[in-house]
User: What shape does this take?
Amino acid sequence: MPFDFGFVVRNLPVFLDGLFVTIQLSALAFVLSLLWGLVVVGLRRSDSAPVRNLAAGYIQAVRNTPVLVQMYFIFFGSGMAGYPLSGFVAGLLALTLQNGGYVAEIYRAGIDSVSRRQTEAGLALGMLRRQAFFIVTLPQALRRVVAPISNQGVTIIKDTALVSTISVAEMTQAGRLLADRTAAVYEVFFTLALLYLLVVSIFSGTMRLIERRVRVLA
Amino acid sequence: MFDVVFRSWPLLLAATGETVLLSVASGLLATLLGILLALGQLFAARALRYLVEVWLYVMRGVPLLVLLFAMYYALPYTGIDLSPRVGGILVLSTYFSAFMAEIFRSAVLAVPKGQWDAARGIGFHGWRLMREVIVPQALRLASASYVNTMIMLVKGTSLVSIIGLWELTLAGRQIVERTLASFQVFGAVALIYFVLCYGLSLAGRYLEKRFSYVH
Amino acid sequence: MSIESGRAAIELRGVSKRFGSVQVLNRVDLDVHRGKAVVLIGPSGSGKTTLLRCMNFLEEFEEGEIRIDGEPLGYSDDGTRRRRPEREIARQRAALGMVFQSFNLFPHMTVLANVTVGPVRIKGLPRSEAEAVARELLDRVGLGHKLDAYPGQLSGGQQQRVAIARALAMKPKAMLFDEVTSALDPELVGEVLAVMRQLAESGMTMVIVTHEMAFARDAADQVVFMSGGSIVEAGPPDQLFHAPQTERLQAFLRHFREGYRL
Ligand SMILES: Nc1ncnc2c1ncn2[C@@H]1O[C@H](COP(=O)(O)OP(=O)(O)O)[C@@H](O)[C@H]1O
Ligand SMILES: [Mg+2]
Assistant: This one.
C-alpha cells in the first residue's frame, strides 16, 4: 500500500483545525501551569506547617495519579455535580493541576540550588526576606529551570492528546475521525506524528533560545 | 455514598491486577530496550548512533496516545496476529524505553572521568570495566530518575484504556457508565494508582538508601 | 589623632554565642570608634566570622548586646531580648556594609545593577540618582568601565571591588570585611587591599577580618587578637605585632612568621 501524499494534502485543513485547538490548549495549560506552580511552591515554603504539608500532599497526589483519570474525575464529576464543564475546560484544569505540581517541584529545586549566601548578601544590604526572595533568589532560580520547564512543556503538549477522550476536537481526535472515515491509517498517523514533532521541536527550540539568553555565568 | 465503590471492589481489584501486569511487563521490556538504546547512543558506530538519536527524538516528541492509536489502527492491515494486550505492552515499552535510554546514558556519562581512568589504570577494560566499575555507580546515579520514569509508566498504562484494553481506568469508566458515580469511582481509581505509584517511590527510596555508598 | 566622641560607633558588650553545645563567642567586649579601622586576627575557628556576622545580625546571639550608634542591634531596647520586627532589623543592617570572602555578587545583574539595587529597592532612591552614585563609586574602585559587565565576566579581584562598591552605595555608617582577599589569586589581592586602604584613609569606620598581616600593620588603628571565641589581646598594631603580651598571640605570630607571609 503506497503512501498517499495527495490524501494528506487534501485533508490538511482537518489536521490544521485540530492543530489550532492543540496549540491553544497547550499554550493555556503551559502558562497556567507556570503560574499555578509558583503558587504551589509559595505554599510549599509557607511559614505555616499545615499549609506546607497540604501543598506537599497535593504535589504527591497529582504526581502519583494519571492525568487521564484526573480528567475523567473533573469532566464526568463536574457533570454529576450539576456544573458540567466542557471537555476543553476540564482538560485544561486537569493538565494545569497535574503539571503545576511538577512545575512546583522544578521551581523548588531551582530555588534550593541558589546558594543561601545570595539571600544573606541581600539581607546584609538591608533587604527584607521577601525582597531577598523576589529580587535575588527567584530570578536566579527561574533562569536555572528553563530546561526542565521546557521538558514539562513538551509533556503538556503531548498530554493534550488525551482530551480527545472527553470529546475535544483537537488534533489527535481529528486524525482518529479521519482514520475511521477513510481507512488511510498510515497517512493519518504519520501526519499526526509529524505535526506533533513539529510543534514540540518549535517549542523546545524556542525554550533553548530563551535559556541561552537568560543563562547566568557562574 | 461509597457503596458503589465497595460493591465494585472485586472488579476494581481484578482491574488493578491487569494494570500491575501491564506495568511489570512494559517496565521490564522498557528497561531492557532502554539499556540497548543507551548503549547504542554511547558506543555504537556513528551511523547507528545517529539512527538511535533520531529514533529517540521521535519517540520523545510524539504523544503516547498517538502511538497507541497507530498500533491499534494499523495492526489489522499488517497481517501480524497480535493481541491488543501484547500490542499495548509493546507500545508502552517502546515509548518509555526512550526515556529510560536518556536516564541510563546520562548516568553513565555522569560517572566521573577519574573513575574510568583509575579502572583502566588497574587493568579493567571493555565489558569488565563497565560491569565492575561504571555500571554499579551509574545505577546509583540513575536510581531516582529511573523510579520517576517507572511511575510515569504506571500512570501511562491508563492510556491503553482508550484503545479498549481492560485495566483499571477502563474498569472505572465502565462502572461509572453503569452507576454514574463518577466522583467516587474515579476517586477510588485515582487512589489505587496513588498506592501503586507512591509505593513504587517508597521502594525506590529504600533501595537508593540501601545501595548508596558511605562517602 | 582625632578626638574621639563619647560613644563608639559599634559597641559590643558581653556578646556570647553558641552553636548547639559549642561556645563560639565568649563574652566579647569591643568598641569600634568612628573613623577607625579595627582589624581582627586569630586562628581559624576562633570565631572571627561569627563575630562579624553578629554585628550585622546575620547571626543571633544569646547573651550580651551590640549597639550601633547607641541603638541596640537586633533585639528590642527594653531589655527583654525580644527580636525586633523584620523591618527594623533590615534598616539596621542597611546601616552596616558587609563584604564577604566569596563576593556574593548577584550573578544575574550587571555591575551597575548590583550597585544600584540596594539604593533603589531598599531606600527608594530614584534610579538616576542611584546610578550617579554607583558610577562614582565604581570609578573610585577602578571599575568605571565595567558597568554593563556581569559578575561572571570579572576576575575575583574585580568582583570583590564591585562588592565593596555595592556595600558603600547604601552609605553605611561602618563597613565589615570578612577575609575578603582569602579567595583571591595572590596577584589580585593588592588591588582589593588598595581600595580598602583608601577607604580607611577617607575616614570610614571599618572592622576587618584578615590574614594579611602587613596590611593589618599599616592600615589598622587597632588590632584585636581572638582565640577560642574570646578577645585575648587588643591594642595598636605596633604593640600587638612587636610586643605581644600573651603566650597565645606570641605563638600565633610565630606560626605566621614561619609561614610565608610577614
Ligand atoms: N553555622 C554553624 N554551625 C555550627 N558551627 C559553626 C557554624 N558556623 C561556625 N561554626 C563553628 O564556630 C566556630 C567559629 O567559626 P568562625 O566564626 O567561622 O571562625 P573563624 O572565622 O575565626 O575561622 C568554629 O568552630 C566553627 O566550626
Ligand atoms: Mg572566617
